[in-house]
Amino acid sequence: MFVKQYRCMRCAAVYEPADARMVCDTCGDDGILDIEFDYPAIKQVLTKASLAENRDSSIWRYLPLLPVKGTYIERALHVGMTPYYRAQNLETMFNQKRLSLKDDSVNPTASLKDRASIIAVMKAMECNHKVIACASTGNAATSLAGHAARMGLKAKIFVPKRAPKGKLAQLLAYGADLYRVDGDYKAAYRLSKQAIDHYGWYNRNAAINPHMVEGKKTVALEIAEQSHWQVPDWVVLSVGDGCTIGGVYKGFYDLLTLGFIDKMPRLLGVQSSGCDPFYQAWKNDAPLTETNEDTLADSIAVGIPRNADKGLRAVKDSRGAFITVDDESIMSAALLLARNEGVFAEPAAAAALAGYIKASTMKLIPPDSQVAIIISGNGLKDTDAVVRHIQTPELYSVDFNRFKQRSNKKEEKHE
Length: 415
Ligand SMILES: *Cc1c(COP(=O)(O)O)cnc(C)c1O
Ligand SMILES: [Zn+2]
Hints:
This protein has 415 residues and is an alpha/beta fold. Helix content is 41%, strand content 17%. The protein has 16 helices and 14 strands. Helix 4 packs across helix 5 (139-151), helix 10 (243-258) packs across helix 12 (308-317) and helix 13 packs across helix 14. The protein is globular, with a radius of gyration of 21 Å. The model has no long low-confidence stretch (mean pLDDT 94). Zinc ion is lined by residues 8, 10-11, 13, 24, 26-27, 31.
């Protein structure tokens, strides 16, 4: 492993690498740790040329940049190297020089969360834990359950009452111990923390566990490699807890430090207007304060983000921005994406496209910029959200003549 030390985001205290360490001793749960790597040593084993020859098409191709030993990776589900598509139909529609989609909905449990969960499970195994727990709006839980099942760990999962059916079904299928909490995500998080402290389970909660950001950063490593190290000017993604955007920043930061890329893309963090604590804090240059969790984009309905420091740093240090979009524009973006590019995103993932559209309309992102949009979760996880927005299909008679009459009428309507 090439981990040099852990540094507190609040008080800058440094700690020796230790598998079991979670937060700063002085600052407690507010003292989120940042993992610092030994870049000169990494440069000896990881180069653009070595990557070009590496046939491993999963996140483990970046193992020197990850805080795990790699003992159990052979057995793991395949995470990462998800498609990076050029979105030419959307490019034309929005007059953008280049627009790409990083489709993380095709990970093994169908969201970007797999990048963090796999690291959590590896870490838990390296620390000899048999039980791993987290609170989640849905996807972190689902992905933890899947990877735990694969690696033979027990998963204890706390989800808010409103977690969509698709995600609950996945969780139950993977055989996790599920605690569906009578409350919102904030409530589920609080209960999980008490239970984890009490029972001593391995903690996958994304802010407290500093290794999660490191897993999520692999999406940025891939975007850079897939764009042949000519990184986009802007990377657009939706933000809940702030772990993903913190990870995206960290990934580009690693590559910049290693000299693989020559600029930090500007990060556009997209929040729902029904739950926008990052946006408010960034706009007012003030500390984060709690907001409601009032949006159908359940994966970003996070009223108290636990990764506030890393999320804000990502946007400030990349000269990026936060932006908000309402539920209506999120659902229109989901349909636009599916209909024009064939990618079906869950609402929280479609929020990123909605944010791009707004930023392009406001000229925050100019037409000559190169843009990547991260599609963080699959539309099949929450089909109710889409079905509510489209007309239920009419029922056809089995009689072909009647079929013809109606289908001709339908064609006319469409012309
Ligand atoms: C978790 C999640 C996000 C947001 O990531 P955070 O780390 O919570 O900011 C966005 N989209 C989807 C689909 C997610 O599951
Ligand atoms: Zn501290």
